[in-house]
Amino acid sequence: MLPKEDQVSCMDGLIDAALECRVANTKPKDFDEWIVRMMGTGVADCFMRPYNFKVWAVPTTKMQCQWLGERVAAPDVKMLARNVILNKVAGNWGPNATFRFPARDGTGGIWIAVAETLPKEKKRFGRTGEVTKIDADKKVVSLADGSTIRYGKLINTMAVDQLAEKMGNKELMSLSKELYYSTTHVIGVGLRGGRPDRIGDKCWLYFPEDNCPFYRATIFSNYSPYNQPADDVKLPTMYLANGQKASSTDAKAGPYWSIMLEVSQSSDKPVDEENLLKDCIQGLINTEMIMPEDEIVSTYHRRFDHGYPTPTLERDGVLKKLLPKLQDLEIYSRGRFGSWKYEVGNQDHSFMLGVEAVDHVVTGAVELTLNYPDFVNSRQNTERRLEQNFVFSTPSASLTDRSR
């Protein structure tokens, strides 16, 4: 619960913003202006500005607001005032109030299952299948194992800046350098003991505070009982949350629970990578997510260089030049970083970007997800479904020729 002073500041700002929206006749020039116009300076300063800097690793003044869509509803000031006075929490709001999640194998299990529907001989995974060069003139892709693949039309899902480098095209490389992205660090912490009652059944929590490096904590053990070891599995304690040694190194039984944290990094927001795990654990203590004496039984840290495709002020202008130039070369760059549109960059979006790119190449169908983000984000897809049985026709030679 916010202190009363902050509640008053937020409500004042919301009222001012509601009045401003009624007379405004111009669109916000950037994300920061959109925040203030929609929510006021109180909410902006208490949450939106610090939180979004932690997420995007770039100031809100350097981001555009078109990615938010044209139909974002203004806050209901009467409802907010009522909830503040009554100390009432608004529940079951937003598109993620209820969502599905795999009981086993996480979201990665979904895409592994999708991949299993494809013939084995049509798949190349691992370092040997890594693309090392693309000759757009000869329409030849070179792989790390020395083999080459000829193509007629190429659908690319690697980051478009990396694609330009593989092509060795200086014009495209220069254009792609104007696109901005942030790096994401994913931190995992496994703990012995029952999940604290203060956390309850929450799935994720947001942190605008400056006393922790992470912007989001996901209580992964709340998603499924299979996201942590069974209670009877015996694991040794690595160390206590405060860094001290455990009283015993002997393996002991659970129960267990787990947290996944996300930390952004960029030239505007550097992080101490070497000490990031330790800093995140201290942040969990600072925010009372865990206690200093809690036993840590496992940790995880992975750095994703391309984490978030940032919707900067320059982004759309770059993409309007870059993607058509690639398409003139019969290269369709799609995906989270392939087409560099965060608003259609989630897993489901990325999947449909690929589906629709193939449909466009084969039948000339319109690519709705790429070209009309507002439309696809305002409705549920009920038309397209992944079928379990496929009939594979023999592709044309130009798509399958391979030489060594």
Describe it:
The protein is an alpha+beta fold. The protein folds into 3 domains: 4-86, no CATH class; 108-180 and 312-403, FAD/NAD(P)-binding domain, CATH 3.50.50; 182-309, Protoporphyrinogen oxidase, mitochondrial, domain 2 (Polyamine Oxidase, Chain A, domain 2, Alpha-Beta Complex). It contains 12 helices and 12 strands. It has helices spanning 4-23, 31-56, 77-86, 108-115, 160-167, 170-176, 276-286, 315-328, 347-363, 368-371, 373-377, 397-400, and strands at residues 131-135, 140-143, 148-150, 154-156, 181-192, 204-206, 216-218, 239-240, 256-265, 295-309, 331-333, 402-403. A hairpin with a 4-residue loop joins strand 2 (140-143) and strand 3. Helix 1 (4-23) crosses helix 2 and helix 1 (4-23) runs antiparallel to helix 3 (77-86). The longest helix has 26 residues, at 31-56. Mean pLDDT is 91; it is low at 389-404.
Provide the fold topology:
Blueprint lengths: L3 H20 L7 H26 L20 H10 L21 H8 L15 E5 L4 E4 L4 E3 L3 E3 L3 H8 L2 H7 L4 E12 L11 E3 L9 E3 L20 E2 L15 E10 L10 H11 L8 E15 L5 H14 L2 E3 L13 H17 L4 H4 L1 H5 L19 H4 L1 E2 L1
Parallel strand pairs: 4-11
Antiparallel strand pairs: 1-2, 2-3, 3-12, 5-9, 5-10, 6-7, 7-9, 8-10
Helix pairs in contact: 1-2, 1-3, 5-6
The number of domains: 3
Q: DSSP strand (E) fraction?
A: 15-25%
* Strand segment count: 12
Poorly predicted ranges:
389-404
Helix share bin: 25-40%
SS summary, helix count:
12
Report how far the terminal alpha carbons are from each other: 65 Å
CATH class categorisation of the largest domain:
Alpha Beta
Might you state the CATH topology name of the largest domain? FAD/NAD(P)-binding domain
Biggest sheet layout: 6 strands, antiparallel
Label the overall shape. globular
Rounded radius of gyration (Å) = 24 Å
> Which CATH-level-2 architecture of the largest domain?
3-Layer(bba) Sandwich
